[in-house]
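Researcher: Let's run the pair from yesterday's discussion. Sequence first, then tokens, for each.
Model: Starting with the first of the pair.
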Amino acid sequence: MTTGLNLAEQLYVKVNQPYTGYFDAVKLNRIFQESLYKVALDTIKQCSTQKDYDELTWANTTQQEFALVNGMIAITDIPDYLYSKEIKVRTFNKIANIADVEGGIVELANYQNFTLGQQIYVKDVNPPAQSMDGYWYCFPTSPKKLKLFSDEEMTVPLNVTNYINGGKVGVRIYQDSQMITSDEKVSIFSKLNDPLHPLYEFAEQNIKCYPTDSDGVLMDYYKKPTVMILTTNNTIDLEVTYNLPFLYTVLDYAAKLFSMDTKDVQGMQMYDKEIIDNE
């Protein structure tokens, strides 16, 4: 068992300086918080060995779904987000054009094999005043005709009375995406219209996805440290969240920060070496 108080005591042993009141609990907590974030980010960026991955099991978050609004999501809407690993973007995959809509029956331009209860997506129907755009559940009445319902139990049917023309039926699926940078966007070789992969970029604290009518992302990401190191606490076992080698590296970096605050140059150099040895 390793608590925040244990780490504080080990810190004073490492820096060979008994507690004199120079650092109160608030300052020590700040040092350990900064160290925790620094070591986490460094490990994430340099992650290449099984040891690295083992030290980050607490941070791995996988297969998290988030809705997009106008093709984007604010990073602040993902409270524990720290660093992205993989982003899949949910895009529209057209299966058939709509030939006609009468009441709750949609006639397709060609034969299809939709199944009972399958969720589909409809878009670009004219007129938009009574828009059908969105998710529906289908009841195939023939290979070219679908009765649509808004609920999975299929009790609330579609009822359109003023259809004019247009519309597509398809499904929305998650696809592997590629990150794009600002210099690529302005290039004559821009990937923004890449037909093979959806794209995403980070801008103004948002994740923006292309095509812009994408409506969701499936993310694997590293989350922020969730358990802080409180140097007066002797009950929370930090090893439940972080493994011991990771905590030792956090301790070494905290010793370096301690030495920086006390202007101990020799100490800083020594703890830099210990941090490297732990990697």
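Model: Moving on to the second of the pair.
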Amino acid sequence: MDENTWGDEFENCSSPPFPGKLTTPRTLAQKLLQSYVWVEENMQFANEIAEAANCPTQPFVRLPNLSSPTYDKEDALLNVSVPSLYRSWSALRVVRERWDWIYRNFEEDWTNQKCQLHRMMCIKALSVVLETAFLPPEVLEAREEKEKEEEREHLRKALKDLNIPDTLLAALGISPEDAEEEVDFDSLFHGRDEDDE
């Protein structure tokens, strides 16, 4: 078994990368690429645990396509916004701190079901970080807007399945699918004027 994979033996585990306080965009890019390799090596384990736990999406852990030559360069993050850099840096640190917690608490029982779920979630967390870590601000913003719209549509459908009336959906700011008009928030909070009637 490769030294960078866990398997079920405690001795065969490796830790995800940890960016220090003096991390630059270049070293953060290196840490993210190391994270990609770490997730790739442990993805099969995570997906097997996710399937056994009946996680909703299969495969549970996915990796973005980083085959573009941009990702191999040291300056891959120079077009990424500062908040995105900070989010990636923070997330890598949090995952590593969580990993160290798992390592300390389950050292004697590495195959424990709780331990396996915690390990799976560390891998999932890093894969989610990698999905957006290298995106320029405009691409990230467009993706976030699309995800918000998908979430809004999912919520609207869930509320419609609960037989919530269209008027309440409109008051919540969730328009029914066939409604084109905007919600009049003034009338919601201040009532209607006599002139409007």
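Researcher: Give me one sentence on the second I can quote.
Model: The chain is about 55% helix and 0% strand.
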